[in-house]
Amino acid sequence: MSANYGVEDVAPMIGSEISGLDLSKPLDTHTLASLRALWLERKVLFFRDQILTPDQQLAFTRQFGEVEKYPFLNGIEGNPLVAPVLKLPEETINFGGVWHSDTTYLAEPAAGATLYALELPPVGGDTIFCNMGAAYENLPTEIREMVTGLKAVNTSAKAAVSATRKNRIDDSGDKSAPTEFTEIHPAVRTHPETGEKTLYVNEAHTLRFDGWSQEDSEPVLHILYEHARKPEFQCRFRWTVGSVVLWDNRSTHHYPINDYHGYRRLLHRISLKGSRPV
Protein backbone atom coordinates (compact mmCIF):
# COMPACT_ATOMS: atom_id res chain seq x y z
CA MET A 1 0.00 0.00 0.00
CA SER A 2 1.52 3.32 -1.07
CA ALA A 3 1.68 6.39 1.15
CA ASN A 4 -1.17 8.88 0.75
CA TYR A 5 1.14 11.91 0.91
CA GLY A 6 3.97 13.42 -1.07
CA VAL A 7 7.63 13.39 -0.01
CA GLU A 8 10.37 15.71 -1.25
CA ASP A 9 13.82 15.45 0.30
CA VAL A 10 15.23 18.81 1.40
CA ALA A 11 18.86 17.64 1.40
CA PRO A 12 20.57 14.30 0.70
CA MET A 13 21.38 13.33 4.31
CA ILE A 14 18.55 14.89 6.33
CA GLY A 15 15.09 16.38 6.08
CA SER A 16 11.99 15.71 3.98
CA GLU A 17 9.04 17.96 3.20
CA ILE A 18 5.65 16.25 3.37
CA SER A 19 2.64 17.38 1.34
CA GLY A 20 -0.98 16.30 1.17
CA LEU A 21 -1.70 15.84 4.88
CA ASP A 22 -4.00 17.82 7.17
CA LEU A 23 -2.38 17.61 10.59
CA SER A 24 -5.49 18.91 12.34
CA LYS A 25 -7.04 15.47 11.81
CA PRO A 26 -5.88 12.14 13.29
CA LEU A 27 -3.59 10.09 11.05
CA ASP A 28 -4.82 6.63 10.09
CA THR A 29 -2.77 3.64 11.22
CA HIS A 30 -0.99 3.10 7.90
CA THR A 31 -0.14 6.77 7.42
CA LEU A 32 1.17 7.13 10.96
CA ALA A 33 3.34 4.01 10.65
CA SER A 34 4.88 5.10 7.35
CA LEU A 35 5.36 8.68 8.57
CA ARG A 36 7.07 7.47 11.74
CA ALA A 37 9.43 5.27 9.72
CA LEU A 38 10.25 8.22 7.47
CA TRP A 39 10.82 10.46 10.51
CA LEU A 40 13.32 7.98 11.96
CA GLU A 41 15.09 7.65 8.62
CA ARG A 42 15.16 11.33 7.57
CA LYS A 43 15.41 12.81 11.13
CA VAL A 44 13.29 15.91 10.38
CA LEU A 45 9.91 16.24 8.65
CA PHE A 46 8.52 19.54 7.37
CA PHE A 47 4.86 20.32 6.71
CA ARG A 48 3.41 23.55 5.28
CA ASP A 49 0.08 25.37 5.18
CA GLN A 50 -1.31 23.86 8.37
CA ILE A 51 -4.02 25.52 10.49
CA LEU A 52 -3.78 24.16 14.03
CA THR A 53 -5.15 25.07 17.42
CA PRO A 54 -2.83 24.31 20.36
CA ASP A 55 -4.93 21.24 21.14
CA GLN A 56 -4.64 20.02 17.55
CA GLN A 57 -0.86 20.47 17.59
CA LEU A 58 -0.80 18.56 20.86
CA ALA A 59 -2.91 15.74 19.39
CA PHE A 60 -0.63 15.50 16.34
CA THR A 61 2.51 15.41 18.49
CA ARG A 62 1.06 12.75 20.80
CA GLN A 63 0.78 10.37 17.86
CA PHE A 64 4.60 10.14 18.00
CA GLY A 65 4.96 9.59 21.73
CA GLU A 66 4.33 10.91 25.22
CA VAL A 67 4.62 14.68 25.53
CA GLU A 68 6.25 16.63 28.35
CA LYS A 69 6.65 20.18 29.62
CA TYR A 70 9.75 22.17 28.67
CA PRO A 71 11.65 22.65 31.97
CA PHE A 72 12.21 26.42 31.99
CA LEU A 73 9.01 27.91 30.57
CA ASN A 74 5.36 27.96 31.45
CA GLY A 75 3.15 26.98 28.56
CA ILE A 76 0.60 29.21 26.91
CA GLU A 77 -2.52 30.10 28.86
CA GLY A 78 -4.67 27.03 29.29
CA ASN A 79 -2.08 24.59 27.98
CA PRO A 80 1.16 24.13 29.96
CA LEU A 81 2.55 21.62 27.43
CA VAL A 82 2.61 24.18 24.59
CA ALA A 83 5.61 26.49 25.05
CA PRO A 84 5.82 29.83 23.21
CA VAL A 85 9.09 30.36 21.31
CA LEU A 86 9.02 34.13 20.97
CA LYS A 87 11.31 36.94 19.88
CA LEU A 88 10.02 40.51 20.17
CA PRO A 89 10.95 43.34 17.77
CA GLU A 90 13.06 45.14 20.37
CA GLU A 91 15.07 42.02 21.28
CA THR A 92 18.42 41.12 19.74
CA ILE A 93 18.86 37.61 21.19
CA ASN A 94 16.72 34.70 20.00
CA PHE A 95 15.59 31.77 22.13
CA GLY A 96 17.95 28.81 21.84
CA GLY A 97 20.23 30.63 19.42
CA VAL A 98 23.21 28.27 19.77
CA TRP A 99 23.78 24.93 18.02
CA HIS A 100 22.17 22.35 20.30
CA SER A 101 20.26 19.18 20.98
CA ASP A 102 17.37 19.87 23.34
CA THR A 103 17.57 19.28 27.10
CA THR A 104 20.67 17.06 27.14
CA TYR A 105 21.16 18.35 30.70
CA LEU A 106 18.20 16.19 31.85
CA ALA A 107 18.40 12.51 32.83
CA GLU A 108 15.94 11.74 30.04
CA PRO A 109 16.38 14.35 27.28
CA ALA A 110 13.54 15.03 24.87
CA ALA A 111 13.07 12.42 22.14
CA GLY A 112 11.86 15.05 19.73
CA ALA A 113 9.57 18.02 19.34
CA THR A 114 7.17 19.85 17.07
CA LEU A 115 7.27 23.54 16.23
CA TYR A 116 4.35 25.39 14.63
CA ALA A 117 4.89 28.81 13.04
CA LEU A 118 2.33 31.50 13.92
CA GLU A 119 4.10 34.83 13.31
CA LEU A 120 7.24 35.34 11.23
CA PRO A 121 9.48 38.10 9.91
CA PRO A 122 9.17 38.84 6.17
CA VAL A 123 12.51 37.13 5.61
CA GLY A 124 15.05 35.41 7.86
CA GLY A 125 14.69 33.23 10.93
CA ASP A 126 15.49 29.98 9.11
CA THR A 127 16.42 26.89 11.12
CA ILE A 128 19.32 24.57 10.24
CA PHE A 129 19.27 20.90 11.26
CA CYS A 130 22.20 18.48 11.12
CA ASN A 131 22.36 14.69 11.05
CA MET A 132 24.46 13.53 14.01
CA GLY A 133 24.42 9.91 12.87
CA ALA A 134 26.11 10.90 9.61
CA ALA A 135 28.47 13.15 11.56
CA TYR A 136 29.53 10.23 13.75
CA GLU A 137 29.86 7.77 10.88
CA ASN A 138 32.07 10.18 8.92
CA LEU A 139 34.46 11.06 11.73
CA PRO A 140 38.12 10.15 11.12
CA THR A 141 38.63 6.63 12.46
CA GLU A 142 41.00 7.60 15.27
CA ILE A 143 38.65 10.31 16.57
CA ARG A 144 35.60 8.07 16.28
CA GLU A 145 37.32 5.34 18.28
CA MET A 146 38.48 7.83 20.92
CA VAL A 147 35.08 9.42 21.61
CA THR A 148 33.00 6.23 21.43
CA GLY A 149 33.78 5.19 25.00
CA LEU A 150 33.63 8.64 26.57
CA LYS A 151 30.89 10.23 28.64
CA ALA A 152 30.09 13.94 28.61
CA VAL A 153 28.95 16.33 31.33
CA ASN A 154 25.98 18.40 30.16
CA THR A 155 24.63 21.49 31.91
CA SER A 156 21.82 23.97 31.37
CA ALA A 157 24.00 26.78 32.73
CA LYS A 158 26.54 27.50 29.98
CA ALA A 159 26.61 31.26 29.51
CA ALA A 160 25.90 31.47 25.77
CA VAL A 161 22.68 29.46 25.82
CA SER A 162 21.54 30.80 29.21
CA ALA A 163 21.56 34.29 27.70
CA THR A 164 19.16 33.16 24.96
CA ARG A 165 16.57 32.10 27.56
CA LYS A 166 16.71 35.18 29.77
CA ASN A 167 13.96 37.27 28.15
CA ARG A 168 11.47 34.40 28.11
CA ILE A 169 12.29 33.27 31.65
CA ASP A 170 11.82 36.86 32.81
CA ASP A 171 8.36 37.19 31.25
CA SER A 172 7.01 33.62 31.18
CA GLY A 173 9.44 31.45 33.09
CA ASP A 174 8.51 28.65 35.46
CA LYS A 175 9.61 30.17 38.76
CA SER A 176 9.29 26.78 40.51
CA ALA A 177 11.84 25.11 38.21
CA PRO A 178 15.46 24.56 39.28
CA THR A 179 17.84 27.20 37.98
CA GLU A 180 20.37 24.63 36.78
CA PHE A 181 20.34 21.02 35.59
CA THR A 182 23.45 18.83 35.10
CA GLU A 183 23.65 15.28 33.74
CA ILE A 184 26.25 12.86 32.37
CA HIS A 185 25.51 11.02 29.11
CA PRO A 186 27.52 8.99 26.57
CA ALA A 187 29.38 11.13 24.04
CA VAL A 188 28.09 8.65 21.45
CA ARG A 189 24.59 7.30 22.01
CA THR A 190 22.72 4.44 20.41
CA HIS A 191 19.31 5.40 19.05
CA PRO A 192 16.71 3.39 21.01
CA GLU A 193 14.52 2.70 17.97
CA THR A 194 16.94 2.38 15.06
CA GLY A 195 20.16 1.23 16.74
CA GLU A 196 22.08 3.95 14.91
CA LYS A 197 25.06 5.45 16.72
CA THR A 198 25.00 9.24 16.89
CA LEU A 199 27.42 11.87 18.14
CA TYR A 200 25.86 13.20 21.34
CA VAL A 201 27.76 16.31 22.42
CA ASN A 202 26.55 19.81 21.65
CA GLU A 203 27.91 23.33 21.90
CA ALA A 204 25.06 24.73 23.98
CA HIS A 205 25.05 22.20 26.80
CA THR A 206 28.17 19.99 26.82
CA LEU A 207 30.69 21.30 29.35
CA ARG A 208 33.45 18.68 29.22
CA PHE A 209 34.14 14.96 29.05
CA ASP A 210 33.61 13.09 32.30
CA GLY A 211 36.99 12.58 33.97
CA TRP A 212 38.61 15.27 31.82
CA SER A 213 39.23 18.90 32.69
CA GLN A 214 37.32 21.54 30.79
CA GLU A 215 40.63 22.80 29.40
CA ASP A 216 41.52 19.38 27.99
CA SER A 217 37.99 18.76 26.70
CA GLU A 218 37.51 21.97 24.76
CA PRO A 219 39.92 21.30 21.84
CA VAL A 220 38.37 17.88 21.19
CA LEU A 221 34.82 19.20 21.53
CA HIS A 222 35.66 22.02 19.12
CA ILE A 223 36.83 19.50 16.52
CA LEU A 224 33.58 17.53 16.94
CA TYR A 225 31.37 20.62 16.68
CA GLU A 226 33.14 21.89 13.57
CA HIS A 227 32.92 18.46 11.96
CA ALA A 228 29.19 18.09 12.73
CA ARG A 229 28.46 21.46 11.13
CA LYS A 230 29.75 20.45 7.71
CA PRO A 231 27.17 21.46 5.07
CA GLU A 232 26.78 17.91 3.76
CA PHE A 233 25.25 16.83 7.08
CA GLN A 234 22.73 19.70 7.10
CA CYS A 235 19.45 20.96 5.76
CA ARG A 236 18.04 24.47 6.08
CA PHE A 237 14.33 25.24 6.43
CA ARG A 238 12.71 28.53 5.50
CA TRP A 239 9.61 28.96 7.61
CA THR A 240 6.25 30.14 6.34
CA VAL A 241 3.20 30.80 8.50
CA GLY A 242 1.47 27.47 9.11
CA SER A 243 4.67 25.42 8.86
CA VAL A 244 5.12 22.50 11.24
CA VAL A 245 8.45 20.79 11.90
CA LEU A 246 8.83 17.42 13.63
CA TRP A 247 12.41 16.48 14.50
CA ASP A 248 14.15 13.55 16.17
CA ASN A 249 16.16 15.13 18.97
CA ARG A 250 18.10 11.90 19.58
CA SER A 251 19.90 12.09 16.25
CA THR A 252 20.02 15.78 15.30
CA HIS A 253 21.28 19.19 16.29
CA HIS A 254 19.57 22.40 15.25
CA TYR A 255 20.36 26.09 15.04
CA PRO A 256 17.79 28.91 14.78
CA ILE A 257 19.35 31.75 12.78
CA ASN A 258 19.09 35.16 14.43
CA ASP A 259 19.00 37.49 11.42
CA TYR A 260 15.65 39.29 11.75
CA HIS A 261 16.04 42.06 14.34
CA GLY A 262 13.08 44.43 14.51
CA TYR A 263 10.42 41.80 13.84
CA ARG A 264 8.22 39.61 16.01
CA ARG A 265 8.51 35.83 15.59
CA LEU A 266 6.27 33.35 17.43
CA LEU A 267 6.17 29.57 17.24
CA HIS A 268 4.52 27.00 19.49
CA ARG A 269 6.71 24.14 20.67
CA ILE A 270 5.73 20.76 22.15
CA SER A 271 8.35 18.30 23.45
CA LEU A 272 8.29 14.52 23.20
CA LYS A 273 9.46 12.65 26.29
CA GLY A 274 12.66 10.67 25.81
CA SER A 275 14.61 7.94 27.58
CA ARG A 276 18.02 7.86 29.21
CA PRO A 277 20.74 7.79 26.52
CA VAL A 278 22.88 4.65 26.31
Written description of the protein model:
The protein is α+β, with helices and mostly antiparallel strands and 278 residues long. It has a single domain (6-272), classed as Double-stranded beta-helix, CATH 3.60.130. It has six helices and 16 strands. The strands form four sheets. Strands 1, 2, 3, 4, 5, 6, 14 and 16 form an eight-stranded mixed sheet that branches. A three-stranded antiparallel sheet has the order 13-7-15. A hairpin with a 6-residue loop joins strand 10 and strand 11. The longest helix has 15 residues, at 214-228. The protein is globular, with a radius of gyration of 18 Å. It starts with 5 loop residues before the first strand and ends in a 6-residue tail after the last strand. The model has no long low-confidence stretch (mean pLDDT 93).
Output the CATH class name. Alpha Beta
Largest sheet: 8 strands, mixed
The N- and C-terminal alpha carbons lie at a distance of: 35 Å
Strand content: 25-35%
Counting structural domains, the number is 1
What is the CATH topology classification name?
Double-stranded beta-helix
Low-confidence regions: none
Shape: globular
DSSP helix fraction: 10-25%
Q: What structural class do the secondary elements suggest?
A: alpha+beta
Per DSSP, the total helix count is 6
Mean of residue pLDDT? 93
* Number of distinct beta strands: 16
Second-tier CATH architecture: 4-Layer Sandwich
- The CATH homologous superfamily is named Clavaminate synthase-like
Helix-strand sequence: EEHEHEEEEHHEHEEEEHEEEE
User: What gyration radius follows from the Cα positions, in whole Å?
Assistant: 18 Å
